[in-house]
């Protein structure tokens, strides 16, 4: 099928490329509106208790908006709770908020809720907060928060006014990631082009992978726009899938162009060289794309749309990259013909210096063959040394802790981060620590009083406001609070003095949920601590299934590709070892804050959804290189006498033929991810650094050292399979031939 498709493509390359240009124009127009359709959230589990509580608050109380804070700072020595100017400014602000339909009650101030002074008034009393909710969810609340900050921020009568809160955090993340995307592409494309010139020598040959990469980016944008019509898509998919599309397209085109040059060196016609290239390297590309696609598809198992959107987009991105590589690339090769080697800078430099053309080296004289032979001769010490290094790097991974993204994912200069940091430093309590308990079902006053009293006795709970009164340490300290009951449902507001996502905050929400509930009622908790606990629980509960799907699918695909039951197991083990080292480094840098967290604010946590996403992508990409390498090793093995020495020679030749291209591909992909690492959003920087490290580590320590060492030690057992499975592979197996 590939041969037939390729012959059709090279028979009419101008038609194929004309149609490609038309499709790209349409895709560019359609994809231009992709960002406007995407959402900034998606980290919550829609089936979680905290999500249910939020829905009840929205439907029954109309009070589940994104929490927003207006911070007022007066001159030194001012008591904001009693100062008449501060009160007047506060009244102006609350009056304006009352006029805005999407601002939700209650609007809490130090003047109407003095019992919340620890949360609403700073220690030195020169600063106070107005706390309220903004309706609209992920789709509208961020923009509304931004509009409010633009309108109300500034100075009034000597009072400094700043706006912060979760909705504004998401808006500023959106703005920052949009800028970062342009920077990432501005870094990745020209640097990749320069590196490709070094790899290929010629400008035209180097331009080919970059051109196909741009095709992939445009196609990816249009694809994301299409997906937004039937599924929620995270805004961050724009950065990550665009990078993936560019990296994979360059990777696949690099492999095809490299193989094409090998085939043209065999004195066959260029058309036949293209057909042979796509029939071998093209088949490897397709198979590799399937493994990457399956790794990303497993993300659909998670309930959070942040992760699910990457499953949808990831499959499509891989498809775009493959189509660009196996259809557009052959058309370009056919159209260019001998001009593929035009503008060869290395040849031009040699001519300018009067140096002769170098004699082609025998394969056995090359660096990659000789280094492979060295590893094969020292298989045991190499394997032990590399494994020890990877285990050492992976040790911090054992201490990984997951959390919810907050303002600290933004740079310290961002207003949402700066204001929230001031609140942490100046106030006894933060509104981000607040928890709301939603009670569904009729509860009498005595039962409510008993329940509220019990909640107030939990460690680090400061006040519990309920329809039975305000409680502290089990005792009533203020009268009944109005507006907390609607029909048979009621809400209980709980304040605390702990960071909600740290260990104490998570122990607090667990203890609150363990308090016996009133008879005949169902109690659900929400708030940042509850949402964080539920998100982490959802990840842990679904993760085993995700890992199982990836492992089984990868094992079966590699068996179909190699006919061996040993090599797929080896690939899985080495991948886990490599990724553990990568995540160990991420914990050490971004969670524990070593190396200054590479310029980010360390909170002692990693954003819960990111390591899972990184694992699925990195696992798929590592299989990418595994397929590249095993394809060439197996090709040599099948042509040999299949003795132990033949196994070693096949490994050495396979590494010699792929070492350069795999290393180049890893460098190019690392450059793409380094562009993302330039992001000012901390979890995006972690994503870029982590994946760049993962692909470089995989292409060097794993593929160039551990794989040959293992295959030397296993010998002919590398290719073993039970008789029934071997016969099955003979019937349905996939090969490069």
Description:
The protein has 23 helices and 14 strands. It is α+β, with helices and mostly antiparallel strands and 737 residues long. The strands form 3 sheets. Strands 7, 8, 9, 10, 11, 12 and 13 form a 7-stranded antiparallel β-sheet that branches. A hairpin with a 2-residue loop joins strand 9 and strand 10 (475-478). Helix 1 (2-11) packs across helix 10 (270-297). The longest helix is centred in the first third of the chain and has 35 residues, at 166-200. The protein is elongated. The mean pLDDT is 86.
List keywords for this structure.
737 residues; alpha+beta; 7-stranded antiparallel beta sheet; 5-stranded antiparallel beta sheet; 14 strands; 63% helix
End-to-end gap: 12 Å
Coarse shape? elongated
Structural class: alpha+beta
Helix content: 55-70%
> What is the average per-residue confidence, as pLDDT, rounded to a whole number?
86
Q: Determine the strand fraction and express it as a percent band.
A: 5-15%
Number of strands: 14
Number of helices: 23
């Amino acid at each position: 099928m590939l041969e037939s498709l390729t012959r059709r493509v090279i028979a009419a390359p101008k038609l194929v490329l004309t149609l490609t240009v038309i499709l790209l124009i349409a895709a560019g127009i359609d994809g231009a509106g992709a960002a406007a359709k995407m959402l900034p959230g998606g980290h919550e589990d829609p089936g979680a208790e905290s999500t249910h509580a939020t829905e009840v608050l929205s439907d029954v109380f109309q009070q589940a908006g994104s929490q927003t804070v207006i911070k007022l700072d007066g001159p030194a020595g001012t008591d904001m709770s009693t100062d008449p100017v501060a009160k007047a400014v506060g009244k102006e602000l609350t009056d304006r908020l009352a006029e805005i339909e999407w601002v939700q009650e209650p609007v809490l101030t130090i003047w109407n809720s003095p019992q919340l002074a620890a949360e609403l008034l700073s220690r030195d009393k020169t600063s106070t907060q107005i706390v309220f909710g903004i309706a609209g969810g992920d789709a509208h609340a961020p923009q509304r928060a931004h509009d409010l900050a633009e309108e109300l921020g500034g100075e009034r009568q000597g009072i400094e006014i700043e706006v912060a809160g979760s909705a504004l955090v998401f808006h500023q993340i959106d703005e920052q990631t949009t800028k970062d995307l342009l920077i990432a592409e501005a870094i990745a494309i020209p640097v990749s082009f320069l590196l490709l010139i070094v790899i290929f020598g010629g400008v035209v040959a180097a331009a080919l992978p970059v051109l196909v990469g741009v095709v992939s980016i445009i196609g990816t944008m249009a694809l994301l726009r299409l997906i937004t019509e039937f599924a929620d898509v995270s805004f961050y998919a724009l950065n990550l899938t665009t990078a993936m599309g560019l990296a994979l397209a360059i990777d696949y085109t690099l492999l095809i162009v490299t193989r094409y040059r090998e085939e043209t060196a065999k004195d066959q016609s260029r058309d036949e060289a293209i057909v042979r290239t796509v029939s071998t390297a093209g088949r490897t590309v397709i198979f590799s794309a399937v493994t990457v696609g399956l790794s990303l598809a497993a993300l659909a198992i998670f309930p959070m749309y942040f992760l699910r959107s990457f499953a949808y987009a990831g499959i499509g991105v891989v498809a775009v990259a493959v189509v660009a590589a196996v259809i557009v690339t052959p058309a370009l090769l056919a159209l260019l013909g001998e001009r593929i080697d035009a503008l060869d800078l290395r040849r031009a430099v040699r001519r300018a210096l009067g140096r002769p053309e170098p004699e082609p080296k025998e394969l056995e004289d090359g660096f990659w063959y000789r280094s492979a032979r060295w590893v094969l001769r020292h298989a045991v010490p190499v394997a032990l040394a590399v494994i020890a290094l990877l285990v050492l790097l992976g040790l911090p991974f054992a201490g990984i802790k997951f959390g919810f993204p907050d303002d600290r994912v933004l740079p310290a200069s961002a207003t949402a981060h700066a204001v929230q940091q001031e609140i942490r430093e100046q106030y006894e309590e933060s509104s981000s620590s607040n928890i709301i308990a939603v009670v569904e079902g009729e509860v009498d006053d005595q039962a409510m009083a008993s329940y509220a009293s019990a909640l107030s006795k939990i460690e680090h709970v400061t006040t519990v406001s309920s329809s039975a009164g305000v409680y502290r340490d089990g005792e009533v300290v203020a009268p009944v609070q109005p507006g907390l009951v609607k029909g048979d449902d009621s809400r209980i507001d709980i304040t605390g003095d702990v960071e909600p996502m740290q260990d104490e905050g998570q122990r607090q929400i667990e203890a609150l949920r363990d308090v016996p509930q009133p008879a005949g009622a169902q109690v659900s908790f929400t708030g940042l601590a509850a949402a964080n606990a539920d998100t982490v629980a959802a990840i842990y509960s679904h993760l085993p299934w995700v890992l199982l799907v990836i492992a089984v699918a990868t094992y079966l695909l590699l068996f179909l590709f190699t006919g061996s039951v040993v090599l797929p197991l080896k690939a899985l083990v080495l991948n886990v070892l490599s990724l553990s080292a990568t995540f160990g480094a991420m914990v050490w840098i971004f969670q524990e804050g070593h190396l200054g967290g590479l310029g980010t604010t360390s909170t002692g946590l990693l954003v819960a959804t990111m390591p899972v996403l990184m694992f699925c992508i990195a696992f798929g990409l590592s299989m990418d290189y595994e397929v590249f390498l095993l394809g060439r090793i197996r090709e040599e093995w099948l042509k040999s006498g299949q003795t132990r020495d033949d196994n070693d020679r096949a490994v050495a030749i396979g590494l010699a033929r792929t070492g350069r291209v795999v290393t180049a591909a890893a460098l190019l992909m690392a450059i793409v991810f380094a562009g993302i690492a330039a992001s000012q959003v901390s979890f995006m920087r972690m994503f870029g650094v982590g994946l760049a490290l993962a692909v470089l580590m995989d292409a060097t320590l794993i593929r160039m050292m551990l794989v040959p060492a293992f295959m030397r030690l296993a010998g002919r057992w590398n290719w073993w399979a039970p008789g029934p499975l071997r016969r099955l592979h003979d019937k349905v197996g996939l090969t490069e031939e």
